[in-house]
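Intended use. Records such as the Solute carrier family 25 member 44 entry shown here are meant for training and evaluating sequence-to-structure methods. They are not intended to support clinical decisions.
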Amino acid sequence: MDTTTRAAKIPSFHQTEINWDNLDKTKLYVVGAGMFSGVTVALYPVSVVKTRMQVASGDALRRNALATFKNILKVDGVPGLYRGFPTVIIGAVPTRIIFLTALETTKAASLKLAEPFKLSEPVQAAFANGLAGLSASTCSQAIFVPIDVISQKLMVQGYSGHARYKGGIDVARKVIKADGIRGLYRGFGLSVMTYAPSSAVWWASYGSSQRIIWSALGHWQNKEEAPSQMKIVGVQASGGVIAGAVTSFVTTPIDTIKTRLQLFIFCWHTGINLS
């Protein structure tokens, strides 16, 4: 393969990021929703274990994550690790469409807004990506919170005194009967406080860390230089790891409070004893 052909197949540095105007919207939504669903399948058991640990009482309080995982497998088998999963997947598609649309449109607008200020590339990326993450997460909470409330109740049904349900619709019906529509939005304020800032922190960290890494690798000075596909993936993956670590450290305490509020207030309204 000659140099010209090779160069045509490898994107130049300024093409490693694609803005909203150049995105294939169909692929964005279809592939984005598909990838998110795949990640959800892989990580959902972690959410179940985390939620069980957050609402644990009595002897269960002394269990670590591994012990909680083993207990779920012993009592409910593999299906126990996926309680509430269908509800999450059904709600994931509209949630991701709203999220991705708000994310990309806000990022594009924020980049244009920041241009007159002549900010450094990492700062400009942190500003645009952070604002985009904040906007996207806030908009998607309208669908995400009811799905979250329902799925969490399914995750802990029959556990430590919690009621059992016939499925997501049964949960929604009982929540509305006990507390009205607002019951499905229990913890909405805390969800916004948790996920909107965490989304902002994640995307800001992700965008700025990539530029810092590219600069350290010497690519930022010459934007026409063509980095290899492997290097692009490596930089993006590194940025994701950094962003995830920073975000987890900041948001875990608030997430615990939110989960307890969503579950315990409902139990208080329905008279379920958790002691």
